[in-house]
Amino acid sequence: MGEQSTNELLGEAQRCDDVVNFGFVIDNRKCIGCHACTVACKSEHDVPIGVNRTHVKYIEKGTYPDVTREFSVHRCNHCEDSPCTTICPTTALFTREDGIVDFDDDRCIGCKSCMQACPYDALYIDPNKGTAAKCNYCAHRIENSYEPSCVVVCPVEAIISGDLDDPNSSISNYISEHEVTVRKPESGAKPNVFYVETSEDILDPHATERSGEYLWTDQAAGVGHFAKYADSRLGASDTNSMIVQLALEKKARAANPRDRAIIRDVMERLDEQAERPKRSYDQPSKGILWGWEVSAYIVTKAIASGAYLVAMLAMFAGLIEMTDELWWQLIICCTVFLGITGFLLIKDLDRPERFLYVLLRPNWDSWLVKGAYILGAFGAVLACSGVVIFFDLDRIYLDYLAIAGIPLATLTGIYTAWLFGQASGRNWSKDRYLTLKMLIEMVILGVASLVFLISSELIYWAIAGVLIILVCRHAHNTVIQPQLETLHLSLIHI
Question: Do 350 and 214 belong together in one domain?
């Protein structure tokens, strides 16, 4: 098969009049869970320990002695409408003319947006480079008329590669002869990895329960993006596990009748759950990719934009008089919090020294890029307003700046909702009211901030402080909670 497929790929590469569209078929009937594909991939691309471009997931069903195990190869799906390439701010991820979704780690800033957008959790942060990586279909081998390394080493020929658009290719014939399945078709990504005779249990994490803490269950212990926390988090995990184990052993030895009854009830529940499929080996979870920096940045930019928006609307409505002193207080407040916003955005990057790539190598489909320019434009309005006050220019210029600043401030506060909407691998994309929520948060924080600037009453300060705390908590939950929810990978038969 290898020689035949190589010739086939060579012929595909030489065709000038046809469009090549590479994809995979994974025949789960044949897969034996040997991990040869994983090892070959790691060797071919020098993938660091703890992360994988391709991996074999397996689950267990039944109770002893009637136990079965199922295997399935998971990796990047090289989607036709790949959400990772859309959200990537620097075009580090891109789709080649042959359908391969490839990446350029020299352009990656480590923002982790692609990982949030991928419906299949196929990307990871290289712990050595701080850049995103994934399966790239062994593009360097394809260009030299070789098959991907995983295809070559598979001992049972469970992985088939080739041109999906060529009706005479072996992969097209294989798909036409078998009922195939794709992962999460409702995402609209149009994946190009197809599965033969698979089950929802093997492809849907919601259908299987994790059997416990072990090497491949949690990447947050220090792999990839979290490598810098490895020692502290892994140490704490081991200590806790040891304490729990010792406590259970002691309890079991000295159990009274009531405790034994409780233990019996627990064992009965475990027996009831024994028939459910259990994940025995899987790609480690990426954990929380956007942490406190992102939730804090949502708050800081909402304060900066909200204070300006509320003040300008109140000024035009005749509710407050914008004295020079109040103007300075407003400009300084907004500028400080906008500066903190920029600092937090850069701090969250795994390659912060490359943050200018967002401006110099922009992907205009990404709201991360659009947001950066919006922040810059709003900052320019604040700077120009300061110039008008400092040089005591005609105050009409402040009105003109406000006319431009009001929409820019509004966009500053809410554009993150559209960025989250591009993260189709998380539930943010399903929240139809996220923009409205962020707008409300911005207004609340704007009113609270303005209270601190124009009022000296402690009661008003207390109310404003409570509002800020509540909004901060809500913003934190907005960012963190969807990342704690398991990606739902559903199936469709075609």
Answer: no
